[in-house]
Structures are given as structure tokens and as C-alpha cells.
Amino acid sequence: MTETVLLVGGGGREHAIARAVDDSADTELYACASNRNPGIASLAEGFSEIDETDADAIVDYAEEVGATLAAIGPESALNAGVADALDAAGVYAFGPQEAEARIETDKAFQREFMAEHDVPGCPDFATFEDPEEAADYIRQYDGDLAIKPRGLTGGKGVRVIGDQITEAEGIEYVLDSDYEEFVLEERLVGEEFTIQAFVADGQYRVTPAVQDHKRAYEGDEGPNTGGMGSYSDATFELPFMTEADYTESVEVIDAVVEAMPDYKGILYGQFMLTAEGPKVVEFNARFGDPEAMNTLPVLDTDFVSILQAARDGEELPELTFSNQATVCKYAVPDGYPTDPEAGAKIKIDEESAGDALLFYASVDAREDGIYTTTSRSFAVVGLADTITGAEAIAEEALGKAGEEGLRVRHDIGKADLLQQRIDHMNELREE
Ligand code: AMP
Ligand code: GLY
């Protein structure tokens, strides 16, 4: 039987999901998002411009196209109860309902859930509903703290004392920002990485670890962004971690799945590999963006068959991967993220990207071409036997895209940055 899959979301992550659906057997893809992503639109039978948080309109569209499955990309949709609404309408949504998505959308809930269920890897934390009390806690705390607004901030709300800001700036931040409720937690020091798992019916299947680069500029300088690019290796681990580190992280995912039997969709664990082993920075309730662009192109298992098994209450298939390394680099508009300048014409397309894969993100498709907006524009992904080989493929594609109006972190995936990560971890372990 042909599956009719409705994809919600219009970023680079969703373009990667669209390709994975398109590569699956016997599927028809429809998509909806607030922006018309030309890469998704070219793969889909239909594309409707609907806000990702408009649950009623998404259900109407799902019914109109006869969707038999839905894949939800962004957290904003999960937070708005889009999975609940689709499930209620009889369209199985691969994405958690609002209550389970709180593991991402409510950082106080997330830490309290970990503590209550003895999920390993939880840093010391405290939650606050009053900025004055949060400020007092910062004043008297012995050590550096990470300051997290309780709700969703698009990856841009966290401030880390001793990293980006001083203690005085941290106090000012809790007192003067627009946020009222905070989680304050022990600053974790180490190397960050992500493991994404397919989850349904108390089962899970993990994918290779990925490292994202949140800082805007080369050398990990500048403000946090949604993610400037990411890499994965030909194995499940990354060069700075051991197999035991990976296995220990999977135990965290195991504990979450056990404590949340109704969870379905992607569970994304963001870890800090510290000298004491992996600790949890956060969970997300969806694929990462950019991380989906590393993971889905190397997934050999038919993507839709995983969603079908989830929906039908069957055993999830064992996943197989192509054992290739990947490097993903985003091209963003000049000035991103603080002062982005939109309107540059994009000179690369899926054909001219050569050996690299091209994924569109927030772009404006006009009659005479595709232009940048104020958010991340497009990503190129190289696949090869080694990370440095994949990096070279991504760079070759970027060379064709030109630099006008765009900025890229060329350092992502380069051998010297990889070596710095390994040295950093070795230093921490020796201390
Ligand atoms: P989040 O929005 O929770 O992913 O946080 C954004 C970024 O803040 C993370 O990717 C980390 O780099 C940093 N961060 C969050 N929590 C901590 C922590 N406890 N210690 C150190 N850095 C953190
Ligand atoms: N790349 C980080 C995220 O998707 O939240």
C-alpha cells in the first residue's frame, strides 16, 4: 500500500526528511510549512503554506491529502500540540505529543523528570520562578552556572558564566531579560555531541553521534546560533570519544524511554563529554537541525518503514548505515544571527553542488531565482570514508556557491579543529 506522508516544517532538517521519505518505497510526500522550501516543494506532490503551529490547519491539510503518516520537524509544532491533533484525527504523527515534548520545551520539567526517574548524567540544578531569587542563587553559588530560560528560545537563550559571560552579567541577564523563569545548573566542561534515536512503544534505535557547532564564527567565537554545521564519523563514535562513552550515553536514552513509555518520534540527547563521562546538556524532541542532514543521508534502512513499524506497534527495524563520515556546513546571510542581511541571490543548486548534497533552509524562492532571508539559507553535506574527505567535498560545493552576501564556518570538519577537540578531551582526562 502506498503511504501518504505529511511533512511539517520547511528548514534544512525537513529537506533531509523529505529526501528520506522520497527515497523510501511506495510513498507520496506532501508538506506544509510557513516558508516555501524549494527543495521540499520539488519532491512533494503538494506543498501548502501553513504555520507550523497551526494545528487545525495542519489537520485539515492532512485530511485533504489523505495522509496516513506524519513526520514533524520543528519543536514549535510539537509545543503547539500538532502531534496530539494529528493523532486525534487518526493520522499517526511521528513526533511526541505536547506532554512528552516537554522534555524539550520545558527545561525545568526536563531536569525534574531526570531527577525523579534517576536518569543518569543529570548535572546539579535548581529551578526558579522569581528572577530575584535566581539572582541571589547566582551570587551565592560556588562555581560557574549555566543560565537557562525555562521555555523555548530557538537555541539562543542559554548563557554560561565563565564561558560567554561573567557572574555580574549573569545576574543582569536574569534580572533584565524578558524571561521570568529559569533553570540554573552546574556548568559542564568538555566536548558536546548529539545522539538521535528513533523511539516508539518503549523501543528505541540509535544513530551515529554528531557534533554541531553553535557559535557563529570560526574558532568557536561569537554568539550562539541554531547551529552552523556538524560532522559525524564512519563509525557511531566521534574522534574525541570512546565506544564506552557512546554506550554510556545510550544508557541515558534507555532510561528516558523507559520512564516515558508513550514517547514516539525522535529523541535527541545533547551530551557534554566531561572528564567524568557523558552528562546531559539537554534533550530535544525532534531531529537536530543541522544534525538530521548528517544522519539521514547515511541511513540505509527505509525511513518510512521505521515510521510504519512505530505506527503499527511492530518491532522497529534494526537500523543499518552506510558507514560514511559526513560534514555539513550551513551558509548563512551576512550578519547572522545578530544583524542578518537578506536578499542575496543563491548561486548554487542541487545539480551544481556536485558530489555534495544541497539542502535548502530559509530561502525565498522568487521567479528569477532563490534568495536569502534573515535565517540560515542552505547547507551542503559531503559524504566520504573520512571526516576530512567529507569536509573537502562540502568545501568544493561551497566554492561554487560564492561568498557574496553569505557566511560559512570553513573550520568545521577540518583536521586541525578535529585535533583540537581530541587534545581538549585528553587534557581534561589527565587533569
Ligand atoms: P541548550 O539550549 O540547552 O542546548 O543550550 C545551548 C548551549 O548552551 C548548549 O549547546 C551548550 O553549549 C550550552 N550549555 C547548556 N547547558 C550547559 C551546561 N550545564 N554547562 C555548559 N554549557 C551548557
Ligand atoms: N542543532 C541543535 C538543534 O537542533 O537544536
Structure in words:
The protein is α+β, with helices and mostly antiparallel strands. The chain has 3 domains: 3-97, Rossmann fold (3-Layer(aba) Sandwich); 124-186, Dna Ligase, domain 1 (2-Layer Sandwich), CATH 3.30.1490.20; 191-417, ATP-grasp fold, B domain (D-amino Acid Aminotransferase, Chain A, domain 1, 2-Layer Sandwich). It has helices at residues 12-22, 38-43, 55-65, 75-79, 82-88, 98-105, 107-116, 131-140, 167-176, 243-259, 291-295, 303-311, 387-401, 415-430; strands spanning 3-8, 27-33, 46-49, 69-72, 92-94, 125-128, 145-149, 159-160, 182-186, 191-200, 203-206, 211-212, 215-217, 221-224, 229-232, 265-274, 277-284, 325-333, 357-360, 363-366, 369-372, 378-384, 406-407. Strands 12, 15, 18, 19, 22 and 23 form a 6-stranded antiparallel sheet that branches. Strands 3-2-1-4-5 form a 5-stranded parallel sheet, sandwiched between helices. The longest helix has 17 residues, at 243-259. It is globular, with a radius of gyration of 21 Å. The protein starts with a strand and ends with a helix. The structure holds adenosine monophosphate and glycine. Residues 123, 146, 148, 155, 158, 160, 185, 187-188, 192, 214, 270, 281-282 line the site of adenosine monophosphate.
